[in-house]
Amino acid sequence: MSLGYADRLKPKKNLGGQLGAQEFHQDLDDIKKGVKELAGWVRDAKRVFVFTGAGISTACGIPDFRGPNGIWTLRKKGEALPTDFTPFEYARPSFTHMAISGLVAAGKCPYVCSQNVDSLHLWSGVPRSRIAELHGNCFAERCRGCGAEYARDFQMETVDFRPSGRRCTAPGCGGELVDNILDWDTPLPQDELDEAVRQAEEADVALVLGTSLQIQPANEIPVLTRDEGGKLVIVNLQKTPKDRRANLLLRARVDLAMALLARELGMQV
Question: pLDDT tens for residues 48-88?
C-alpha cells in the first residue's frame, strides 16, 4: 500500500498477527494442477466470492504491509522503506484485478470483498455496488448527511472520516463530506460487512487472493463459504491461519494463478 496512506494512520506498536513471514513458491506443475481443479469448481459454481488483500496490488508497484519487504515489516526492523514504489495515483489495475472484473461482468462473481484502499478494483471496472471496501478508499469521500459517496481522481489527505472541506451536491442536502478511510480503531462499515458475510455464506467457492488472513474479523469472512458447504481456495505466498480450512492452497503469485485460471476458463482478460 502507498506509504502516504500508511503515514496518515495513527502510530501503533501492536499491529497484530505476524510480520515478515517466509514466502513459499510451489513448482509450476503443481500450480497448474491446482488451478485446473479450481477451474472445475469455478465452472460448476453459481456464485464465486472473491476476497482480496494487498498481495494483489504488489504487481502494480504498491508495497504490501506484512510481506518480507512490507511496510510494517521494515518499520519493525528499523530498516529503510522502499523508494521505488508506485504512488496510488499512478497505479493501474493488475492482471488479477482485471480477471476479477471479468468474473464479475460474466455473472460468475456477484461480490468482491477487499481489504485494499487503492481503488484499483473500481478502476478495473467492478461496480461499487458489487464490492465491500472494508477499510475504505483513498479516492472516495462520503456525505455525513445523506451518505452519498463521491469517487475522486485524487487522494484524500486524511483518514478516520475527517472533513474534507467540500459539501454534498445531492439535491436538498449540502452535507459535510468526509474522507472514507478507516484508521486502526475505526469499526468496519457494518452495511458492507453484513453484505460480505451474506455473500460468503451463499457462495459455492470463496477465492482468497493475496492476503495472509491475519486480522479479525475480516479473516473469518471467506471461511464462512467452507462452513456452509462450499469450497475455500487460498492463493498466497505466505502461510495463513486459515490454511487448514482450505480445500485448495496455492503458493503462487496471484497474477500467475489468475492467468492460468483465465486460460482454463477460456476468459479474455
Answer: 999 999 999 999 999 888 888 888 788 888 888 777 888 88
Distance CA 232, CA 152 (A): 34
Residue position matching grid coordinates 462450499: 230
What's the average model confidence in pLDDT over 234-240?
97
- Burial bucket for residue 195 (CB in 10 Å: 0-12, 13-18, 19+): middle
Decide if 121 is catalytic: no
Residue 266 burial by Cβ neighbours in a 10 Å radius (0-12, 13-18, 19+): exposed
Do 26 and 235 form a contact (C-beta atoms < 8 A)? no
Sheet order of strands, 176-181 included: 149-151, 136-143, 176-181, 163-167
